[in-house]
Amino acid sequence: MERLLRNFFLFLSKNRFFTKLAKKYGLRFGAGKFVAGETVPDAVKTIQQLNDKGMAVTIDHLGEFIDSKEEAREAADGCIDAIKAIGEHKLDSQLSLKLTSMGLDISDEVVLENMRRILGVAEQEGVFVTIDMEDFDRCEKTLEIFKKLRSEFDHIGTVLQSYLYRTVEDIKELDQYNPNLRLVKGAYKESPKVAFPDKKDVDENLKKIIRLHMLNGNYTAVASHDDSMIEYTKQLVEENNISKDLFEFQMLYGIRVERQEELVNEGYKMRVYVPYGNDWYGYFMRRLAERPANVAFVLKGVFGK
Ligand code: FDA
């Protein structure tokens, strides 16, 4: 049943008609639990609150799977506005984005032009930029673009997903770039031809890549709400005397908030991924797919308590 629900919400997450409706009608169905609002001022307010609690942030100007150069340009402008707001309000925040919103499906030229524009402003404002990882079909291209940009800019990182068979090799191959990587389990619906179908293998592989990347001496963001990943990381760090400057924990806005606070109180660096914007639909559907309890929460919001 859980797998069925997961597949259903992941299927819905790619529906372009609902994406357009959602943009038009604004945050609904309890999406506000996971999305900080629709505007930059909404996001600034949330970041300030999190910073006050000792948490760093990575802000995500929501957007994915756009169709035209104009939309890609607008999405890049949205990111630039967010970066300027971070600078203006002196916030402790990085930026995350998806290459499909920058024109990945249009051409390399479009995506690179938008990314260079964003990275130029981010450099001036001292803001680090992470390229989120999307579905398997875009993984190779995303890594190619990352490598190209990494050879031009220092303040850029990306994400690897432990559900993909290829990821251990990617960790090894990327080591020459000394990359700052966020390591996650993976949030898209993938074929067993390219990804582990069993959760226990995905979990084991996440531990494996955390270990590999950390012991290579590279900056590692362990992005998981799973206590066993957090405990594994703590132990690894202790056994190998890895400095607290070389890793951080990351979680999503609105998920396991008490655990986020506990990690800060224990002295760990905790970064919260804060999405905002009107393109909230796909992100929200993926959060529902991850946890059936979130669906009950949404139904309560729709039909009353
Ligand atoms: P897992 O799914 O095993 O969950 C462990 C526990 O965490 C659950 O038992 C539950 O208690 C809690 N939990 C997890 N998800 C929840 C939810 N939605 N609502 C409520 N509780 C929940 N993926 C990707 O493909 N590309 C990317 O770029 C990113 N980026 C990213 C950034 C950050 C900061 C995070 C934390 C995650 C991502 N992800 C991602 C998503 C990631 O791939 C994965 O889908 C989710 O983090 C869920 O996996 P967990 O590791 O949390 O473990």
TrEMBL record:
Positions binding FAD in this chain are M133, Q161, K185, G186, A187, K199, S224, H225
Q: What is its EC number?
A: 1.5.5.2
One Pfam match, given by its short name, reads Pro_dh
Drop me one GO molecular function for this one: proline dehydrogenase activity
Question: Which cofactors must be present for this protein to function?
Answer: FAD
UniProt keyword terms in alphabetical order: FAD, Flavoprotein, Nucleotide-binding, Oxidoreductase, Proline metabolism
* Cross-referenced InterPro entries: FAD-linked_oxidoreductase-like (IPR029041), PRODH_bac_arc (IPR008219), Proline_DH_dom (IPR002872), Proline_oxidase (IPR015659)
On whether Flavoprotein is a keyword of this UniProt record, the answer is yes
Protein name (Swiss-Prot/TrEMBL): proline dehydrogenase
For the Proline dehydrogenase domain, which residue ranges apply?
43-298
Catalytic activity annotation: L-proline + a quinone = (S)-1-pyrroline-5-carboxylate + a quinol + H(+)
Cofactor: record remark = Binds 1 FAD per subunit.
| Gene3D superfamilies referenced in this protein's UniProt entry, alphabetically | 3.20.20.220
